Amino acid sequence: MNGGPITRFAPSPTGALHPGNARTALFSFLLARGGGGRFLLRIEDTDVARDGEDHLAGQLADLEWLGMNWDAGPGREDGRGPYRQSGRAAIYREQYARLEESGLSYPCFCSAAELEVSRKTQLAAGQPPRYAGTCRGLDATARAARLASGRRPALRFTVPAGETIRFDDLVRGPQAIESASLGDFLIRRADGGAVFFFCNAVDDALMGVTQVLRGDDHLSNTPRQLLLLRALGLEAPRYGHLPLLLDPNGSPQSKRRGSVTVAELRSQGYLADAVLNYLLRLGHHGAPDGWIGREQMAGVFRPDHLGRAPARFDLAQLDHWQREAVRRLSAEQAADWLASEFPADWPRDQRLAAVALLKDNLRLPADAQSWFAVLDGELEPFAREDLAVVADAGAAFFGPALEAYAAIGPDLGRLAEELKRRTGRKGAALFRPLRIALTGRHDGPELAALLPAIPAPLVRGRFEKAAGMRMD
RNA sequence: GCUCCCAUCGUCUAGAGGCCCAGGACACAGCCCUCUCAAGGCUGGUACGAGGGUUCGAAUCCCUCUGGGAGCGCCA
User: What is the value of ipTM here, to two decimals?
Assistant: First the structure.
């Protein structure tokens, strides 16, 4: 295993996958693929209270849907796993032991309440709320005494004093943080559970990850992990911190505010390739204009073309890629895409025919409903201006239309010719009333293709009805 | 509260001192094409958050402010 970058996506299954997470995953995935490396998936399920198997399953499904196939991860073990942190307790124990032996960590007996008081006091004094170091100086007897009183200690990392921690962020550039601004941070809970700072950093190192792309919110935590890894003698990956993805109104994405999830987009019928084309351009530039196929994405992605400013998730832009994606669907693919929308009794060939006809006029599967009704059902009520067009043409137009249709059939060219001859109408004046009477709307596929697709009795019925229409 | 990050059209962005009275894409408007919508072609409007510097010259460098965000958790 040499050469290419090893990247990972490390979600915690505490909720649904949001576009922001998906983008982070995508960039990591493309970074690995583009460099001939490996993409890992690690599940950070250390929060017993909030984690859920259903969330996990949902996120995995979303990732697979987007085509981000992980080289190693849950269900694809490779010897460096397990890839769920809940299964790595023994590994963490070993690392904790090393840290404790080296004297770079110490047991902390402070209770949540005590810490809270300390935090508030510091805040009130205009100080940043950092761990005060209460338990740092405890000697062996003091520790023994507390242990004897039944207190379960957590483990804290000893942050060295007076040091400047430097690292070169893949997207932010050189960073320098004073260790004095860091408090001794927790690395193991009192119940023995591993804490994010610890297991996240340790796992990246142990799994051989070379580049970590993650959210901006981890930027100021990075020095801690660097310190920790150094103390452990493990090699740190390079970090790149992506700006957050915002809701359309500019606020951070959150479940509370009802931010859209990947699962929602999928269930609405957005196509994975559309989402991918959009995500690739959010906070990342240099991709050529126009559609980019999945296979080309890795070649287009450039980590040095990552932006630093937060981007908003804009459905209008997604919709553009969605239309493009739908257009690129074959009839078979489009039929699958619309599978749940078709009238149940339509046979496959009818579905394919309908789809070929309508595809380019659809954005989401739900849009198909009214068109299926046009082909095989009741028209929706006409909009006022549409009704006016039909009423204006009236019986003088639809009477001949009925006769011509009976004589000629669904050949629009000949039908139009005949109608032009008999009514004197031509161009829009001829086609518009026809279209509206037939479909109940003024947009849609070519009439010449539409007409043969509508059963004759329906055509006759619609012409008859149109002949009697009046503005009310 | 303290520390850190960010700031160009409505949106995504290009721009690393003169090539920018700021370019592209999406969206929007108009025109062309056309039976309609879409697609396609053409045209148009709209942006460097504010104020100070530095410089012959600043969207680009510095400072302040404003706005937004993050971190400081026995959450991740």
Answer: 0.94
